[in-house]
Specification:
single chain; two-stranded antiparallel sheet; 45% helix; 4 helices
Length: 97
């Protein structure tokens, strides 16, 4: 689809994103996830490795579940949970799935 600008030239129409907000790009999503992992104590090297080796939705899921897991070292547990694709914690409330 094209739209006509005031000078009569045709230009591609921009896709509707709803509510004026643009979707997060994959690179932005990866940067956000890397930042979240590093705030939990995961090294930058480990965060980059995890992002390269695992689907982003798996990493997001494990990050969201980490608060329901018991561990003294959350960073170590998060890396292992992502690498070994841990199941949902037993105490996970239904709204957190």
């Amino acid at each position: 689809m094209h739209i006509e600008d005031p000078n009569g030239a045709l230009s591609p129409a921009l896709p509707e994103t709803g509510g004026g907000q643009s979707e997060e790009t994959e690179m932005e999503r990866m940067a956000r996830l890397a930042g979240e992992m590093m705030r939990m104590g995961v090294s930058g090297h480990q965060a980059r490795r995890l992002l390269a080796e695992h689907p982003l939705q798996d990493i997001e899921r494990q990050i969201s579940w980490i608060e329901f897991r018991s561990a003294r070292k959350k960073a170590s547990l998060l890396v292992t949970a992502i690498d070994q694709d841990y199941e949902a914690p037993a105490n996970l409330p239904p709204y957190a799935e």
